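Incident log, support desk, overnight shift.

02:14 A customer reports that sequence design results differ from what the structure should imply. Their input is reproduced verbatim below. On-call engineer (initials T.W.) acknowledged and began investigating.
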């Protein structure tokens, strides 16, 4: 059974549970600022591991001390529950952001 995109209201409700994440077109996005380039690179590696476990992949942009995560479900044409699962897992490993 294919994954269905969430409604605008469902997305807005879920975003309230994820401070810092926003809707950008047909994607949810979050930017993280870290201590330095090494910390930002480490976060990218953690996110890549989560993506492999979920078999769901986001766009990652690595800057000097920043990481931007942007995700949607291409096959569904929008934001789905899978995207929020990925976002929640990223929040849990982001330094200073999630539960450790």
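02:41 Re-run completed on a clean worker. Output:
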């Amino acid at each position: 059974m294919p994954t269905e995109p969430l409604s605008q209201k469902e997305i807005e409700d879920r975003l309230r549970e994820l401070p810092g994440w926003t809707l950008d077109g047909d994607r949810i996005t979050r930017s993280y600022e870290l201590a330095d380039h090494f910390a930002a690179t480490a976060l990218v590696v953690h996110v890549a591991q989560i993506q492999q476990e979920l078999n769901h992949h986001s766009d990652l942009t690595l800057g000097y001390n920043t990481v931007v995560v942007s995700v949607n479900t291409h096959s569904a044409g929008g934001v789905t529950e899978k995207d929020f699962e990925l976002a929640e897992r990223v929040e849990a490993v982001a330094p200073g952001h999630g539960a450790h």
